[in-house]
């Protein structure tokens, strides 16, 4: 199986078996919308249809406007169009994906970036909460009850992905707060990676530090260069 085949099989087999806290819904884009499976498949066949080993970059969990709409982390419909995969019928804009694609451009472009890195999420399925009449993103760490319910899925997903040709020497974590703390705790317990590098989450940068976005892109690039030979 190529790297793409592994990702596609993994994504399409995802399911949540835990008991969700009241008011929380699971978001599984691969079961909720069949079109997303086709979009996701086209993307990974374009950039990952090989046996090249990669380094892992972890996000938090899928959001409604990013991978919730495309099946690919940190990639909205507008960013899909920039890599030649136009999605007709709906459009999404995810600020985090803007940061990531600016990072990808600075690194040398999609082909070079995706040949080296695999972006995934600590929790491969997303969650939403209903506030009034509005449905909003909800992270796996936003409540202790959800974290507990999601941990078996997280551990299973980690075991599956670490069986692929990925580096066990280094991983990068988007989010220097709760996401990094949770992954650090898992890593201390299970020894998944030798090194873990926390970096500011793209949403944090775009929401609070957009004027200095280039500094954060440089921080990512510097981290990649530091561990480039691992």
UniProtKB/TrEMBL annotation:
Source domain of life is: Bacteria
User: Domain Uracil-DNA glycosylase-like spans what residues?
Assistant: 47-224
- What Gene3D superfamilies does this protein's entry cite? Uracil-DNA glycosylase-like domain (3.40.470.10)
A Pfam family per the record = UDG
The molecule here is called Uncharacterized protein DUF4918
């Amino acid at each position: 199986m190529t790297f793409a085949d592994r990702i596609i099989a993994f994504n399409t087999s995802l399911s949540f078996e835990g008991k969700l806290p009241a008011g929380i819904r699971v978001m599984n884009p691969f079961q909720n919308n069949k079109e997303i499976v086709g979009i996701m498949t086209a993307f990974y066949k374009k950039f990952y249809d090989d046996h090249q080993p990669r380094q892992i970059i972890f996000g938090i969990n899928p959001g409604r406007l990013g991978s919730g709409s495309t099946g690919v982390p940190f990639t909205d419909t507008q960013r899909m169009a920039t890599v030649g995969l136009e999605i007709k019928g709906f459009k999404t804009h995810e600020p985090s994906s803007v940061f990531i694609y600016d990072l990808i451009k600075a690194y040398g472009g999609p082909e070079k970036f995706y040949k080296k890195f695999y972006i995934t999420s600590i929790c491969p399925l997303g969650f939403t909460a209903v506030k009034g009449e509005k449905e909003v993103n909800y992270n796996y760490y936003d409540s202790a009850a959800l974290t507990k319910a999601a941990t078996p899925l997280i551990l299973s997903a980690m075991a599956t992905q670490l069986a692929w040709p990925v580096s066990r020497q280094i991983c990068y974590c988007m989010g220097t707060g709760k996401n990094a703390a949770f992954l650090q705790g898992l890593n201390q317990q299970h020894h998944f990676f030798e090194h873990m590098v926390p970096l500011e989450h793209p949403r944090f940068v775009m929401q609070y530090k957009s004027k200095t976005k280039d500094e954060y892109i440089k921080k990512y690039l510097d981290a990649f260069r530091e561990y480039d030979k691992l």
